[in-house]
Amino acid sequence: MKAIEIRNKYLNFFQAHGHKVIPSAPLIPENDPSVLFTTAGMQPLVPYLLGEKHPEGTRITDYQKCVRTNDIDEVGDNRHLTYFEMLGNWSLGDYFKEEAIEMSYEFLTKELRIDPSKLSVTCFAGDGDAPRDMVAAEAWKKAGIPEDRIYFYGKDNNWWIAGEEGPCGPDTEMFLDTGKPACSPNCGPDCDCGKYVEIWNNVFMEYYKSKDGSISKLKQQNVDTGLGLERMAMLLQGKETPFDIELFVPVMEKLKELAKVDDIESRRIVTEHLRSSMMITADGGRPSNIDRGYVLRRLIRRMTRHLNKLQIDLNELSNLIDLYVETLKELYPELVEKKEIIKEVIVTEKDKFVKTLANGEREFNKVVEKAKRENKTIIDGYTIFKLYETYGFPPEVTSDLAKEQGFEIEMVEFDKLFKEHQEKSRLGSEQKFKGGLAEQNEQTTKYHTATHLLNAALKEVISKDIHQKGSNITTERMRFDFSCDHKLTDEEKQKVEDLVNEWIKQDLPVTIQTMKKEDAVQSGAECMFIEKYPDEVTVYTIGTVSKEICGGPHVTHTGELGHFSIKKEEASSAGVRRIKAVLSD
After folding, report:
1. Angle at 130 between CA 127 and CA 133, to 5 degrees
2. What is the pTM of this model?
3. What is the DSSP letter of 558?
């Protein structure tokens, strides 16, 4: 079943069930400076979910164009997309759990003709804030899902809230059994081995979380749902990845025909980023150096670099846009109307970047050769900044290239130098700027230290054989990859979190030493890729709990970190797990 058929069936089904079809909101939010793009169908509807009356009534449905930027660097694998379409239906104080579930089951089994035996669902298990959601479970039983395919999970899996405060509540999620063998006797929808794939989510907004953490009942109960179009099309067509469905295949095949290098990751990046760039541009986005304009610039630049990597003539870009417009015109007729503007914006930005790219990559290659001669594994922040300042080479491109060559990058020093650069520019001829710690990014420094504590806690709670496999730090969160052969249980995650917070509470000292690499290893210091380190290394020690070879920087005492919370634990690759965590005051 093609994507356009799925969308039309969805909208027609809910229209027949009393819902008014509303148009997709633009990708660039109107009157909402808090976000760069529209990221979900509920985002434009927040006022109505809070009680304001919607002009179309209490039952509405739509398809929503969405862009999420947190996983741009992951695009190129077999599943991540920056732009996607979300189908949704809403009850604004109208029907609730029973009717929402009844309609969901009917749509999946009757309209999409999914075999009911392949469906499993999850419901909220209950805790001190809200009871076990037996209402949803009983509704699923009545619809036709047997008890052994109804699973109960906690807040990590089956509770929704947009932020720290606001409307919230339990959700019920629907999963399709792909037919792959179970990875273990306990394999269920919460397992990410690939047997179960989430296809739809119904959120039941019946509570409100206040700033003080207290939970109270909402006066107006709402239903908010989301079904990803590309994922559903992939599953119904029996494809392995979204790039194998009709929305992407013509461009993927054309790139394969044009390319002189066979690189499916680069073809996926070009295919995805070109579509995303076209959709953003059609909705009024323009490249710039700030906010959403910078995201668009970054998408076009990354796409351009991978066209080069495929050794495709960049003049083909205009033809690729034509091909995409033809491919997507039934779903998005606005692309036909805006085709010439889209071409002008994207091709102009590509042309600007070509010279920057050529000069910057040439200089970057010199950096890599020097680093290899010196057995270094990290591209330092000063080098990243000089590439940016001298050649206009974006740090995210340096990051991409470094990753491809097996190097890490040190962004903390870059952030410091970049802020100093901005301050100097602002002050003009006075050339005044704050030096030293005042210009450090304190939050990323805290997260850097927290990765060491997390690594140590995982070794103590899970296994001493666990080792770090990578990390990524922003001012908002930390991402930590580690070797592990199983999904962490809720109990294991809680023990790890508690142990890190205990060490923070103890306000352990963080000390630094420079020593010979052999002496560091002899002393028990851990690091990744020890063979690539130079003879002299820096060792950071945290009390008696952690000792690692690291480039720094770090806080001086663990008490500076605040409260540590694990937000997500998931698979990263075979034998490697990923934790996303945050620090709060």
Report:
1. 95
2. 0.66
3. G
